[in-house]
Amino acid sequence: MCEVPEAAQAYAWGVTETGDEMRRTRLLAVLAIAVVAGLMVTGCERQGDLTQRVGVASTWIPNLQPATFTIWAGQNQNAGNVTVWFDQTKLYIKYQTTGNWWISETHAHAATSLGGIPQKNGNPSPGKFEFKNTFNPKVQTWTYAIPVKPGWVEGTELYIATHCVVSQLVGGKYVNEQTGWAGPHDFPGRNWAKYIKYRRYIKDVRLPDYVVRARVDEGSLPYFPPSTFTVSLTGITETFYDVWNYPDTSYPGWCAEHDKGILVFNGFNEYLTKLHSTENWMLPGYPDIHPDRWDNVNYLLNHKLPGATADDIQVAIWWLLTPEDPKLPLDHPLIGNAKTMHDEALLYGEGWHPIPGAGQVIGVFLDIQSMFFMGKPMPLRFDIQPVIIEVDP
To answer: Are residues 74 and 196 both part of a single domain?
Structure first.
């Protein structure tokens, strides 16, 4: 492991012996053997000439990422999905049923306010929606391609209502006809109709496209909310990015995978890394990370429960990103505050994006390329922990 004697290594491990000892076991610091090994250092070379605050701007980007929502038939039967996405000129709304569910009607409407969706007493009126179709024979998929309207400018949040009528094909006959709605949000009326909120443009962070240095230190700084560790960046050479050089600021950091570790011991805690926004990046090369949960993670980072500990938040992140890890239920069961935050992120986080001007953070993913030791890069000799930091653009 990076040619450091085993006894001299200090790791922030995702996997620990027991849940109660998570931080103590994950963030080890073995000093004495390092001295014997001659590998202990008091600090690493830093770019001290770049101490000014770097990062003064952020940007709007087209929201080209599809967002998928369950079609609930009769309020509690999963009949498939509605997926919404943009290209440069159109909004797409795709209905796709699964199993033996079939569609006989669809109604869709998109507006820049909830009041812009036809309704009466807070209950939507699908028959008055702008886009509608009936199908005979029935279909299992249908897509509306809606031209972008003049008012759908940068930052516009659309309210999208997607109604359908579905039934099940059993023994050659259609039975169990139900009304279907998709989306996490409730209309204000008395029925159970749902709607979707989706932005044409989303706020994103401007990040350097070159490798920078990241130092990972044990624990949170006093002025941070709880975090698993603190991350400081150096090597940012332009003034228009949304990340800043140390010592002007540091960032709260979180583990992205449960079963990997990262060195946090002084001298072995600097890395060369690429920075990627979780608002605008798919993660190649990380097959254990759930690819569709970054909206949920960003929701969680911005909706932490008062009183939640770093351990609570970290466990919730692991259960969002690596729920298939077989060791996770034993090492860190999903209970208490962690479960509450995890469940709320799943319920409300689909298609969620930070709100401009609200002081909300965006998760930035550190794709670590190599270690940095004694002023030189060193190749990684083990699977290292991918890291998320919180950045407020």
So the answer is: yes
